[in-house]
TrEMBL record:
GO terms for molecular function: amino acid binding; aspartate carbamoyltransferase activity. Belongs to the aspartate/ornithine carbamoyltransferase superfamily. ATCase family. Its EC number is 2.1.3.2. InterPro entries: Asp/Orn_carbamoyltranf_P-bd, Asp/Orn_carbamoylTrfase, Asp/Orn_carbamoylTrfase_sf, Asp_carbamoyltransf, Asp_carbamoyltransf_Asp/Orn-bd. It holds the Pfam family OTCace. Gene3D superfamilies: Aspartate/ornithine carbamoyltransferase (3.40.50.1370). This is Aspartate carbamoyltransferase. It catalyses: carbamoyl phosphate + L-aspartate = N-carbamoyl-L-aspartate + phosphate + H(+). GO terms for biological process: 'de novo' pyrimidine nucleobase biosynthetic process; 'de novo' UMP biosynthetic process; amino acid metabolic process. Keywords: Pyrimidine biosynthesis, Transferase. Catalyzes the condensation of carbamoyl phosphate and aspartate to form carbamoyl aspartate and inorganic phosphate, the committed step in the de novo pyrimidine nucleotide biosynthesis pathway. Pathway: Pyrimidine metabolism; UMP biosynthesis via de novo pathway; (S)-dihydroorotate from bicarbonate: step 2/3.
Amino acid sequence: MYQITSRLQPDFEMICGNFKGKDIVSLDQFAVADLDKLFTVTRQMKRIAENNEPSRLLEGLLVGLLFFEPSSRTFSSFAAAVKRLGGQTIEMQNPEAFSSVSKGETFEDTIQVMEAYTNAIVLRHRFSGAAEQAARAANFVPVINAGDGNNEHPTQTLLDMYTLHERFGRLDNLTGLLAGDALNSRTIHSLLRGLSLYENNTMYVLSPRQLQLSRDDFVSLQDRGIRLIEIHREQDIPHDCDFWYWTRVQKERFASAEEYRRAQSEIVVASPALLETYAKKDMILMDPLPRVESVDPAVDADERAVYLRSQIRNGVYTRMALLALVLGRI
């Protein structure tokens, strides 16, 4: 069985305005100017996709989708992004069961084999630090982190931030409510990193005490300049949030079913009544999905709920933009 070295010391390369050939491992690689550039290209990609315009931008290129952990949206949206731009994919889901990994092939060898066949690798893995380890193993092609354990999910955050920017026209001076499994949610971790790049953002984090941010993460994020306020009861939800960001309890991170059930029983569910009581009329409700007893399906009809509308579609557009930039076609 191969090994992943968890929590490697970061040595990834900053974007600094030039995406070409760069590994995309963490939101910490991005500056505000890099996000501005990505969002400009994302708007171009949105036009291509919405108008079903044929594109040859990635023609002749192969992107490897290497997913060691289940995925619906991230896997499908990366595949759609490549094919919308005329590229092709090599797709490997659950390689531990259906590849030479099952025979004992090391993680590094798996990465180097995939890079021999492709122009970029998109990696999803259940272990924190896997994306950075893959980037170190790959000598010739960029690696894009599609989620590594409970660490980060940078491309989800790029689409989330684009969704917020599209709605509010800014990413500073925002008040948000992030709810659910703050301890294990890589999407919460990455979003807080991203929003910390902008001034005067206040984020309320609603979770049971056993699922609150780790103290290291809380202190580290506060030091970046973002204002964090941890709350644990529905009654403490503020009425002035610009957006809500709801997440599920990460069942796969728990040691036992009983431990998971206890945590799940303390989660606040986003319901029509909750929105009626605490939400502004012009806010938006986001969810990285899948939703598992986190958002009541009755909320779907509320126009403020964007998780199955603009948010999920923006995943394709931002990933189209990122791939075009990283592969040097823009």
